[in-house]
Queue: 4 jobs
Job 1
Amino acid sequence: MSTRETPWHLRGNWEPLHEEVSATELRVEGSIPPALDGLYVRTGPNPSTGSSPHWFLGDGMVHGVRLANGRAEWYRNRFVKTPDITDPLEDPAAGLGDLGRGKGNTHVVAHAGKLLALEEAHWPFRLDADLETIGVENFNGALPCSMTAHPKVCPVTGELLAFSYFSFEPPYLRYIRIDAQGVVQQVEGIDLPKMVMMHDFNVTQNHVVFMDLPLVFDLSLLASGIPFRFDADAGARLGLMPRKGTNADVRWFEIDPCYVFHAVNAFEKEDGRVVLDVSRLPEAFSAGSDDYASVGRRWRFTLDPNTGSVLEEPIDERPGDFGRVDERRIGLPARYGYLLSLDGEGNSEEPVYGSKLLKYELNSGRCWEHSLGDNVRGGEPVFAPRSPQAEEGDGFVLAIVHDESADKSSLVILDAENFEAPPLARVHLPQRVPYGAHGSWVPNGVLR
Ligand SMILES: [Fe+2]
């Protein structure tokens, strides 16, 4: 399978797995902190047939490690059992527009006692604590549209704030507000001039900020898999809206054309300015939807509602993306953010996850690097607090990494406050784990 003729997303450590494994006897180096009592879970595209037309279109497979009492109790991998797995269509195009035919391949988020596998063009799928699929989740029929894979759980109100962009007709954007009990409270049409790929957004204590960036829908590209192309002439805007606002309340701020796959965090200053910390790419999909030559770097947008202006500031030269914060600081001033370094800038052939994890002091731009090792490539760093009451940043950073030389994967657990030191623990996983997308630390007791 792994030949040069094989598309990059199906070879090397991107090659999909076919078996579902459950393992309990896991080799551990170092000491797993007993404070870690919960589930680390991550998803990614893993086409069940062994092939998919584009990286983004593979079936979701979740990988999880259950940690408790200083032990790694189990590792499991499971396909997200979507209809594409359980009831595949002869002609996949026949499923276009069916919100229940998602992949669950982009992110896993816990909210209101439910574990949700997310993908941005369809409804989520609900998983149980053992990673088995319960079924599609449309919130008792209250969600009339797709939902982003990057919703934000407000640590103050417990709300899940989200949006939907995958619509071929106006409104091209919807805002979704779900309360702490998991009940949809608001689905609000937001006017956009056109359909654009909107992968992530930003929340603060009182606002949300949409990113209308010029990765524009182009039907003529449908056959190539992902029908979006970068068009700087389409302009770029950030839309600031109160969290319970409507379309009429959105204030749009023009910015230089760019793309942002991932926000790191956002917050409001006392003077009312709104700060977005993101990874910004000068452009995306430049030579087509399989071009990853452009990479993200830490960037800060500061929106001033009093003047209508935006300050655009590069923060660091290091390529990095997949930024996360201590989730107890989402939408609030956060001291630290954690990113995955990226290699392969200018190389259009495939995205290259880097050999470092990065910890940023978000205000100063100071950065600590954790080197994963020679020929080891990382994954998204996820923060787990030492306890619910611990100070921000007092805890652990977890990531699944892959040793390209040995072709073996492991879950590394870093001390977030001693970030550059060797991992506190390394859980050797019983099989190779393909490079993937996003995940979460789910403390024990959160799921119902
Ligand atoms: Fe993402």
Note: The first helix runs from residue 83 to 86.
Job 2
Amino acid sequence: MSMDNERIDLTRPEFWMADPYPTLARLRESDPVHYHDTAAHPFWALTRHDDIVAVSKTPETFCSGKGIAIQGGSGEEMAEFENLVTMDDPAHKWLRALVSRGFTPGRIRTLESHVRELTTSILDEVSGRDEIDFVEDVAALLPSYVIGELLGVPRQDQHLIKVWSDGITEGGGEGDGQNEGGFAAIGHMMTYLAGMQEARRQSPTDDLVSLLMQAEIDGRRLSEQAQRGFFLLLEFAGNETTRNTIVGGLLALAEHPDQAVLLRNEPSLIGSAAEEMLRFVSPVTHFRRTATKDAELRGRTIQEGDWLVLFYGAGNRDPEVFPDPDRFDVTRYPNPHIALGGGGPHFCLGAALGRLEIRVMFEELLRRFPDIEVTGRPTRVRSNFIRGIKTMPVRLGKDHGA
Ligand code: HEM
């Protein structure tokens, strides 16, 4: 272990606001299972693709039920709700099977035309304007509208999801835990959802709120409060992740003009381009696991109770798996990235939906606005959990039509 590695603090938001990749590469090469003791609570920092996959797929030894965050911020604010992402088997298995009914391939396919309509209406709004903030005016809107659509929130109220989301992020997303704004936003959302449940009790529809009210496994249903807790998780999990893949994806295209030309000339590359955006951006910096027993990993002795942190972006630049890993390549294949998790029981429930949103957004955006350009420096989100962009000025250019 070099002296340098001892001074690295991967829990500082500033580390993620700058370019983290050279440091992550050094760690991966010199000390891939690194004992990180420079922060409030020590943990093992995992930076190799195969180690992250192995730990994700061994939940009996490396569990999620004892927390998923490194400190402050992510996860902790969710503790009071019945929460899929911090549960272990058998409770996780039961709940995951239940809520998965809302995310079947058939249901996601049905959403595609809605996702396209929503994208079109977002682009209609900005068409004709000279310079826009791509984050606020475009990328932030789609994921919140889509979560609204999934839940069954009527179109005229879908902007509320964005308002709540902003309230929650501003309240809790800056790495210092929560403040009153965040709790107020959660309160408004819960009240609204309780109203929806009341309405669906009278007359069910085919939306997710109705579906969860009726869903039952082994004769057991989820309480309505726990259902609302799950909807809040979707709000946390589906929003900034998708938004930042879209924003980071556009920035990557702007920084690699040859790849933008390739994608514009060959729209069928959109599927592999979306995967490469996920890999390259890796908007979720980490999830944590806790050892349930003593274990060994790459020669290091892990003790029961130790924390292990999976740094997805580091695994996604592992040269053992991705040739020329720092290159953004919209034709990259195969692309076994771990931006949506390293496999195992907690693999992203919204993966198909997130992928759909990214694909449809870039299909529509690049077709309508082929001359789109990033016109200024993006500003970064201050967080150690989401590697994201807060503002990014963009000029759309001529609209070639919806
Ligand atoms: C496209 C961008 C997205 C990224 C990069 C992303 C990333 C992730 C990651 C890294 C995990 C943890 C995996 C693990 O611990 O093994 C996860 C879990 C999860 N994601 Fe996503 N996600 C995205 C979109 C979405 C969307 C759109 C939704 C839903 C609307 C969603 C819902 C969830 C849920 C519910 C979990 C917890 C699953 C469980 O614990 O069983 N995600 N996601």
Note: The two ends are 56 Å apart (CA to CA).
Job 3
Amino acid sequence: MWYINIDSFKEANGYTIDGIWYPRVTSIVSIKAKPALYMFYAGLPDYKTGEAIKSKSAEEGTLLHETVEAILRKEPIVIPDQVKPAVNAFMDFYNNNELIAHKIEERVISKKHHFAGTMDVLAELNGVLGVLDIKTSMAIYRDYSMQTSAYIEALTEDKTLPPLTRWILRLDQSKRCLKCPATLRDKGGREKIRGEKGQCQHEWGPMKGEVEIKELNTFDSDIKAFLACKSLWEWENEYWLKKIK
Ligand SMILES: [Zn+2]
């Protein structure tokens, strides 16, 4: 990454809280290589197409986050058409579980390890307290466990909160073929077919929402991996970090 000055580095990679700058959790975890991302770019005509898909897909993800968070805040909402199936899937989940949001989009700080982040939801799910992270991806990737372990560390290191669990709540939407097991997903304006076997003139059914919840229970190894990322991230950005200290 290239930055024109220290302020642009600080802005892009962290938060200034009470006059102290902290690196952001998502910037730190971005140092880890993501081989799947190379495969994604390799399947596209050019780099620009990839960036366009990523930005449109991020926009849809933000829209879904905002809608779900408004539901959790019990605010009146108009569900945007683009994300309606996924929101409906979430509503089913919400109506069938006891989900109470205590904090939403809250800044958390680790003074011990010097980093900060914004967690999605501090929630009580069926009587258990934990951090709920909402993802709008095709699957639950292992990398999410590093990011969420950092939030847990920040929330619990001063011992004012009891031990917390973590969940990834994945929301997505896709169409199923009526004649074969294939599914079609439209993400960032790009249609992607998965699970194709043999020849089929697909006939797509309606767009349907999906909801998946996964509890993560590997905190010790996840936070170790996160802190290792942080060391690597600091090494990579040594030039800028020296100017801050
Ligand atoms: Zn088919």
Note: The first strand starts at residue 14 and ends at 17.
Job 4
Amino acid sequence: MTSTQAEIEVSYDVSNDFFRLWLDEAMHYTSGSYLTGDETLEQAQIQKAEILADYAEVTPESFVLDIGCGWGSNLEFLATRRGVKRARGITLSTEQCEWIHQRGVPGVEAVVCDYAKHEPEEPYDALISIEMIDHLCSPDQATKGMAVELYRAYFQKTASWVKPGACFGFQAILRNRVPRSRKDLEDLAFTADVIFPGGLNPRLEELVQAVNPYWEVLELRTQRTSYGKTTAEWLRRMRLHEAAIRETFGDPIFDDYDRYLSTCVRAFERHWSSDVQMKLRKID
Ligand SMILES: C[S@@+](CC[C@H](N)C(=O)[O-])C[C@H]1O[C@@H](n2cnc3c(N)ncnc32)[C@H](O)[C@@H]1O
């Protein structure tokens, strides 16, 4: 693990009330999937969850694990819209876990646990993970050439948890091109160091290398423009609450999140970043 629990708390434990002001009602903190471009953020988030549940071949009888489950938005989707009776999530954030327990959705369970230490009592039928892998390799480790090895350890571990032939609906934010200007580089470094310390977005090639020999890639779609729309909508909603955020959470929180979300919008527009969804099947 590279993002420590303390680093995760920097990213996700600012305050649940803060994130509620600008995420969708279910609190998906990852890209939605805009299929026509005209959808609301809420619709795009449901479409994302549908794609990944289909990739994972989830049925109501499936015992499903969501690795890095955030505030439980996808778990809640599985239980309420797909009729899943047993949906479990793991997260490193205690605030997120408490939030999920407060929602009290029947069939949904969450635990604070590092994925590397997770040992299920019985195998899962399906896995879903939405933008958690960016916490597994730090910039220093990537510089030392460790990225594929760290991601492969994750894919090996996750494959050990499932039944033969099980599927995995996987989504990751990607790093693509490197910007040229000093200001853009500084904004990206700020986002990494201040908002998501310890993390680094993987490159698509690294993921495709790392799934082998544990998972076969059956389908793959990228959705760079969807993430641009998602982050633009988060920024728009956050700015609507500027006065309240400054008063309740302080000026640095508003200013830092404004800079980070504005940088994200540019990052997706200019191809510095993208997002991928993959349907993986366990190789037995
Ligand atoms: C960007 S959030 C995504 C949350 C959620 N999947 C969503 O779509 O809103 C990343 C999540 O990964 C979790 N995470 C990061 N490293 C982890 C680890 N080593 N083990 C378990 N969860 C981890 C964080 O606690 C957080 O919930």
Note: The radius of gyration is 18 Å.
